[in-house]
Amino acid sequence: MLPNCFLTECNNFLELYLIVCESVTAKMHPVNESAAELTSLLTSAVFQDVHVMIFIGFGFLMTFLKRYGFSSVGINLLLAAFGLQWGLLMQGVWHLVDGKIKINIFKIINADFSTATVLISFGAVLGKTSPVQLLIMTILEITIFSINEHLVATVLEANDVGASMIIHAYGAYFGLAVARVLYRPGLRNGHENEGSVYHSDLFAMIGTVFLWMFWPSFNSAIADPGLTQLTAVINTYLSLAACVLSAYAISSLVEHKGKLDMVHIQNATLAGGVAVGTCADMNIGPFGAMLIGLVAGIISTLGFKFLSPILASSVGIQDTCGVHNLHGMPGILGGLAGIVAVSLGKKEGGDPVMQAAALASSLGFALVGGAVTGFIMKLPFWGQPPDQNCYDDSLYWEVPEEEDENEESLAHADHSKNKAEV
């Protein structure tokens, strides 16, 4: 038998716990929320898919650098966790209810969306910035994003359900503007740690596969439930599939002896999901979706092969992950596809002029906001790493010593040699 005092304490604790839970539930659930929205298993599943993309997909996609894997995944986690909180606050300011920010499943999905813009920009400056600089970028980029998102969705009433314009194009060109301002002449000829190794490319492919599988959820997350949401899923599904084929084909054509380039496969195979985003919920048909994906795969692969070196050598944009090819150009393609689709009457109530204005707004906010943010990040007290320490985890992380790795390799080699002699 347990002492009565212990049972009494347990009972009191249980009552207190139930009171706290009831209080938190009452605060978190908006009073006017429909029961269908609160209990929708589909919406919760879509949120989880988007969440996986943010924390695993984006994080592992950037692990291709041979000495920067800890930072790719670890700083991605830091920026995403911080960004979604800031995104909830910034986007909530535009949608106050009785002077309060109400939180529901759609609000946290949109918070993840706002974080995606930062992670895209992170790819452009990967390995060349400090965590403090990146946190500053997160604050400023999400703040500007929330203004542009409100302008596009509420004022212009443009259609961008999969966010080709307001997330992908915006995030890419914001990051490129930052990268241009933070240009490093010392890295003009590359860096010894800038490349990949066999296992780092394999880890990056994990990110690719996660993003590829869950992209239909990303593009349909905020679509109207029912047929419209199903349309967004199917269009994204078909666009991604067609994109993979064109990316493989073009990579084989432009590479030596018809071989495939892992950089193309890791990135260009995702461009179809980016490009179809704006018109994902429109009645563009299977052919339209596949055509968008096909073109996206082609321009993305060609961009990695030919355009990235030109941007680095002639324009001074050192785009580490090639976000211009994966998110920038496909994002613009998506915006243009949306203008054409609306002009053809594929979206009821759509206005092609507003679609064009939304694309221009996203690019304008990205370039100007990114440039201003870059100058702020360039201030000397944010701890920007020196050129020789770029793309190196050891500057910010405890990593296994290289000497220990060499000793283990030598020991293994000696063991193998002795075994062979025996």
From TrEMBL:
Keyword match Membrane: yes
Assigned keywords, A-Z: Ammonia transport, Cell membrane, Glycoprotein, Membrane, Transmembrane, Transmembrane helix, Transport
UniProt xrefs under SUPFAM superfamilies: Ammonium transporter (SSF111352)
Region (Disordered): 400-422
Substrates-to-products reaction catalysed: CO2(out) = CO2(in); NH4(+)(in) = NH4(+)(out); methylamine(out) = methylamine(in)
Sample GO molecular function, one term: ammonium channel activity
Residue ranges of domain Ammonium transporter AmtB-like in the record: 43-394
Location(s) in or outside the cell: Cell membrane
TM regions (residue ranges): 45-65, 77-97, 103-127, 134-153, 165-183, 195-215, 227-250, 287-307, 327-344, 356-377
Known partners and oligomeric status: Homodimer. Heterotrimer; a RHCE monomer interacts with a RHAG homodimer. Component of the ankyrin-1 complex in the erythrocyte, composed of ANK1, RHCE, RHAG, SLC4A1, EPB42, GYPA, GYPB and AQP1. Interacts with GYPB (via the N-terminal); this interaction bridges the (RHAG)2(RHCE) heterotrimer with the SLC4A1 Band 3 I dimer complexed with GYPA.
Family per similarity comment: Belongs to the ammonium transporter (TC 2.A.49) family. Rh subfamily.
Purpose: Functions as an ammonia transporter. May play a role in the elimination of ammonia in the gill.
Protein name: Ammonium transporter Rh type A
Organism: Amphiprion ocellaris (Clown anemonefish)
Primary gene name: RHAG
